[in-house]
Design a protein that fits this description.
Layout (H helix, E strand, L loop, with lengths): L7 H27 L4 H20 L3 H18 L7 H22 L9 H11 L17 H4 L2 H4 L19 H5 L5 H5 L10 H15 L2 H6 L13 H5 L21 H29 L5 H28 L1 E3 L1 H4 L2 H12 L3 E6 L4 E3 H22 L3 H6 L6 E10 L2 E8 L6 H10 L5 H5 L3 H5 L22 H11 L3 E7 L3 E9 L5 E8 L2 E6 L3 E6 L5 E4 L2 E6 L2 E7 H5 L9 E7 L2 E7 L1 E8 L12 E6 L5 E5 L1 H6 L10 H4 L3
Parallel strand pairs: 2-4, 9-18, 13-15
Antiparallel strand pairs: 1-3, 4-5, 5-7, 6-7, 8-9, 8-16, 10-14, 11-12, 12-13, 14-15, 17-18
Length: 655
């Protein structure tokens, strides 16, 4: 039951507008700290905050009005020169905006907010009275309890107090039993149970956040109840301790509305009208043909009408897809605050530069990108860049530079996070992986520098010897790769010791339509994502070589393992595979042996309701109306135990 009876629509409009306004205010506050004398910037901040206060007053949200009013008084003193911007003053202001954001999350559930934390209000009053806030300028990261350090994405919405692991207590299917093959790290990322359980709403917040961080859209449809689990109200201590991840994640339920340019809607409407006219023409031609009129002119008109319909449907499809496209800047605007808070906590000087904010991406993908980018920005600040003292000793400027860019390259979006920090040493990563028992010495010796850099994505890998509230558990980068793969994307790393690191993410423009290559194995058609396909080759049995007991093929001086699709599916092959698809999966390249090809197609994936077979992303319909399963190659490969799917040389060489 909502506390805003009859005003739900006004509340949603307020939250949509104010959330964007608050993100803009946060970014401008970070800029104001760099340019404290910029009066125009301060006036923009004042106007944005005043607008939020006015909307809260119209909805009678007293606690928010009270908090905003005190913060406005502080802005007014800054504007009049009675106060000056210092890092300590900015900490208090950002604490206040963080509380306002938490209040947005509560309002999004239709609940009235409670009074703001007394510590924040007292800090505001102290600054207004000309006293220095009683908090450390740059607190050092402290060892984190399991509930906080389990995953940064959960930290943003969960209370710092340890909460019970509620995966088994929530209604619906058992998470571990249903999804262990899809996101095996989810079970290990859950907070450990505490001796004193928290109240029910707070206890259910952690699984809701963890599920939202790692589950792809089809799986969410299998667990509709999880969408209605109320988020926990963040405890005041989370603000007092300045958990930096709070700026990177949105509080409250996922936004299910979208803003669309009316020009795009007009285009959809016009195309719909033209399709209606073409449909009428086809109906007329159908009637003529049924009446026996099958002369050349009638058949020619039928062919023209079908061709016209094909063009119009393609244009309509593109126009509808564009209505889902949103500028990625709406996501990027969260990260300057995140980088600033974390850098201050770690005693570092960091400038985050954004570019390409106007690049458009499917709205659902933008939402799913939030957690990976939060991890990458945090890692760049924590692991990538050095402290001012270390940078000066290395001959660098004290302030480090992190760049977050986005651009469209063909039919993909390229996102890059670059820092000018200490970079990564491949040999050090190799030694760390051996030390943690993630790989053995023999495997490590066979890794090149590129593969060594990819070790940071392994579950449990971390270069930190001690666990802190920021990092050390080896969860973050594993979450990054898993989420990017769920979006059919790729992630690549380039790093030079002493110079910095660049992490590149390549994503399709949309997940609604997936380009696939349809292949056959055991007389059954299957679709594999075209984004993973590098080329198609013919398998020559004489070219197969045994390397460490496993069949491989050399393609342009690159030794590639050979896998059969039938073997990956656990089927007995019905014939010798004659074709191979050279595929790129994350950091691995391999050849997928198949029986034959059907061709390339653009498909719409439909999730399978109530079931999720291993290695199957969904299903689609082929041109002849038959059902074709769309394979999740990452899932299939992760289930391989080293023999499953491995080609036996005898299967490929003619007797």
């Amino acid at each position: 039951m909502s506390d805003f009876g009859g005003m739900e629509e006004l509340l949603q409009d307020f939250l949509m507008e104010s959330t964007d306004l608050l993100s803009d205010v946060d970014n401008k506050l970070v800029e104001l700290e760099k340019r404290p004398e910029d009066k125009a910037l301060l006036n923009d901040i004042f106007r944005g905050f005043h607008t939020i206060k006015g909307g809260a007053g119209f909805l009678n949200v007293g606690p928010m009005v009270n908090l905003c009013h005190r913060t406005e008084n502080l802005f007014d003193k800054l504007r009049n020169g009675e106060l000056h911007i210092t890092p300590e003053v900015m900490d208090v202001i950002l604490d206040a905006t963080g509380i306002v954001r938490d209040m947005f999350g509560t309002l999004g559930q239709g609940l009235m907010v409670a009074d703001a934390d007394a510590d924040v209000l007292n800090a505001l009053d102290a600054v207004l009275a000309g006293e220095m806030p009683g908090k450390a300028a740059a607190p050092a990261p402290a060892p984190a309890p399991a509930a906080v350090a389990a995953a940064p994405a959960v930290q943003a919405v969960a209370s710092p107090a340890p909460a019970p692991a509620p995966a088994a207590a929530t209604d619906g299917p058992d998470w571990n039993a249903l999804h262990q093959a899809i996101v095996p790290q989810a079970a290990t990322a859950q907070p450990a149970p505490a001796a004193a359980p928290a109240p029910a709403p707070a206890a259910s917040a952690a699984p809701a956040a963890a599920v939202a961080a790692v589950v792809s859209t089809p799986v969410q449809e299998l667990l509709p109840a999880a969408e209605h689990i109320p988020a926990a109200k963040p405890a005041s201590k989370a603000v007092a301790n300045k958990q930096p991840s709070s700026a990177g994640n949105s509080s409250g339920p996922q936004e299910n509305t979208i803003r669309i340019d009316t020009v795009r809607l007009d285009m959809v409407l016009n195309l719909s009208g033209e399709i209606g006219l073409t449909k009428n023409r086809l109906t007329t031609l159908r009637t003529e043909i049924l009446q026996g009129n099958r002369d050349g002119n009638t058949l020619r008109s039928l062919d023209e009408a079908i061709s016209q319909l094909d063009l119009l449907v393609g244009d309509l499809q593109n126009a509808v897809m564009k209505t889902r496209m949103q500028p990625i800047g709406r996501l990027f605007q969260k990260y300057p605050r995140l980088a600033r808070d974390l850098a201050r906590q770690l005693g570092k000087e960091v400038e985050l530069v954004l570019s390409g904010e106007e690049t458009e991406l499917d709205k659902t993908m933008i939402e799913d990108l939030n957690d990976p980018l939060v991890h990458l920005v945090r890692n760049a600040v924590d692991h990538g860049v050095e402290s001012p003292e270390e940078r000066i000793a290395a001959g660098k400027k004290p302030q480090s530079l992190i760049q977050l860019t986005a651009e469209q390259v063909g039919d993909h979006i390229q996102i890059e996070i670059t820092d000018d920090g200490k970079g990564m040493n491949p040999d050090a990563l190799r030694r760390k992986a051996i030390e943690k028992g993630l790989i053995d010495q023999e495997t490590a010796n066979g890794l090149d520098e590129k593969q060594c850099l990819q070790l940071i994505f392994m579950p449990g890998f971390s270069t930190k010897d001690q666990i802190s509230s920021v990092s050390g558990r080896g969860v973050g980068m594993d979450v990054v790769r898993t989420n990017i793969q769920k979006l059919n994307g790729r992630i690549d790393i380039n790093s030079l010791p002493g110079e910095g690191t660049r992490i590149s993410i390549s994503l399709p423009l949309t997940l609604a339509i997936l380009p696939v290559l349809v292949v056959r194995a055991c007389n059954q058609p299957f679709a594999v994502p075209l984004a993973m396909v590098r080329e198609i080759i013919t398998i020559d049995p004489n070219a197969i070589q045994e390397v460490s007991g496993k069949p491989t093929i050399v393609v342009r001086d690159e030794i590639l393992p050979l896998r059969t699709l039938a073997g990956l599916l656990g089927w007995e092959p019905t014939q010798k595979p004659y074709f191979g698809v050279l595929m790129q999966s994350a950091e691995k390249s391999f050849i997928l042996a198949i029986d034959s090809f059907v061709g390339r197609d653009d498909v719409v994936i439909k999730p399978l309701q109530n079931i999720r077979p291993k290695g199957v992303a969904g299903a689609t319909l082929s041109g002849d109306g038959s059902v074709v399963l769309v394979l999740d190659m990452e899932d299939l490969l992760s289930s391989s135990d080293g023999t499953n799917g491995q080609v036996r040389t005898s299967e490929l060489i003619s007797v």
